[in-house]
């Protein structure tokens, strides 16, 4: 009887201890959310995870902080934990793929994006990102196919603008200049905040044309229109507030 009683008391202490740890973890998590300094946020989220290793939201927010600090291996670690604990959530798969792309690990990026598409075939974001990964691998037709699908599904303008940008690059790689020009202009219209990203496309285009011929006739009115459009985008960028990257709050 005494052994049974001691067992019950021990169990109750364990349950109470777990509850205390969970409460303390939540308090630390909230402090991290409320903090305005990235390093303090990371500190609080880390302490919260020490008390409760299953706190998915703490991994998400710390992972986002690591990503924006370009600490990609650490971001990958956190989003792997999120994916393990929330296997039906596509968000950690997106972030894993972006971190892998930053590290040049295209195959793992494609793997995670494919998994995301399997979970949600209507995931335009995954198709858009995978289009970029395929383009980086030199798989031009696959990149166009995924960009087509992202554009067909629709979604947030920056994501669809990115799909148009990747498809523009892919068309240009195939020598389909008119299609590339149309997509490039559409991308500029959809996401002027990404003018630096599209700047790379226009630079590649102009460099390619200069390499083929020094004759201005080969640039044509489309090239001039692209330059004018780019200037407009830069002006818009200066007039617009900076994009809100604080997804950790």
Summary?
This protein has helices at 2-34, 38-51, 56-68, 72-85, 91-102, 106-119, 124-136, 140-153, 157-173, 177-190, 195-212, 220-239. It is mostly helical and 249 residues long. The chain has two domains: 32-121, Tetratricopeptide repeat domain (Serine Threonine Protein Phosphatase 5, Tetratricopeptide repeat, Alpha Horseshoe), CATH 1.25.40; 136-240.
Which consecutive residue ranges, at least 5 long each, have pLDDT under 50?
Answer: 11-17, 200-222, 232-243
Radius of gyration: 24 Å
Helical content (DSSP H or I, runs of 4+): over 70%
Distance between the termini: 52 Å
Write the H/E string, N to C.
Answer: HHHHHHHHHHHH
Number of distinct helices = 12
Shape: elongated
Mean pLDDT: 80
Question: How many distinct beta strands?
Answer: 0
Q: How much of the sequence is in beta strands?
A: under 5%
Structural class: mainly alpha
Largest sheet: none
Instruction: List the domain count as a whole number.
Output: 2
Q: What does this 3D model show about the protein?
A:
It is a single chain. With about 250 residues, the chain is mainly α. The chain has two domains: about 90 residues, Tetratricopeptide repeat domain (Serine Threonine Protein Phosphatase 5, Tetratricopeptide repeat); about 100 residues. Helices cover about 80% and strands about 0% of the residues. Helix 5 runs antiparallel to helix 6, helix 6 packs antiparallel against helix 7 and helix 7 packs antiparallel against helix 8. The longest helix has about 35 residues. The relative contact order is 0.06.
